[in-house]
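Work Package 3 (structural annotation) set out to generate three-dimensional models for the target panel prioritized at the project kickoff. During this period the team completed the workflow that converts sequence records into discrete structure tokens, so that structures can be stored uniformly alongside our sequence database. As a representative example, we reproduce one entry of 229 residues exactly as it appears in the project archive.
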Amino acid sequence: MGKQEPIFTRETFRFFRDLARNNKKVWMDANRERYKRTVVQPFRRLLEAVSPDVLQLDARLDTSARGGRNFSRINRDIRFAKDKTPYRPQMYLKFLAPFPGEGETGELYTGLSAKTVTVGFRIYSGAKRKESSLGVIADARILAQPKWLTQQKTKLSRRYESYWYSLEKKEWKEQSGWPANPEDWKKLQAWIVRRKLKLSDATQATFPSEIAKIFRDLFPVLKFTSLPD
């Protein structure tokens, strides 16, 4: 067996920095092949490298890459972007929990941008909380097991950062820490549990193994909030 090679290089982060400074369609069109070489292809390799470990956690998690579901979109809808920049200088690899209908569900993710590398779990309520896995699955479990939130805080807080969003006056407000009681949960619209890594960690051959380890730690949170059994 040959020596394992890193999936990402510094060129990935350099591309995101350059895109942030030149966030216009004409620049992106001129650098399309560079984007494919330094971002798209490495992320597809990462999907292939991490997928076997993800499927060991639960075979229902989507690793097929159909319709781009495993990757975030770099294009922005500038109708809703205050700064009018048409591209996001970042990319996420996502493994979504299965969920019927159009509602939002939880996911395990890895994100790279010009200055950050993050790996973790996240879940959002979407436009209709009652139709998301938060409303359909997680709410009932929190009601039945109110101590679960405190248990996860005790187990994970030393190694992972947690923050969540409440809805106040029709605006999302970030709340630091863990939504550790049922009253917090009633207001919760999104929840992120993650670990920040160094940029250099992503350029190591061991990066997929590190991701798999973090996913194993956080899979119980995904399971509790998003999987039906």
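Helices lie at 10-21, 25-30, 32-57, 133-144, 148-156, 182-187, 199-202, 207-226.
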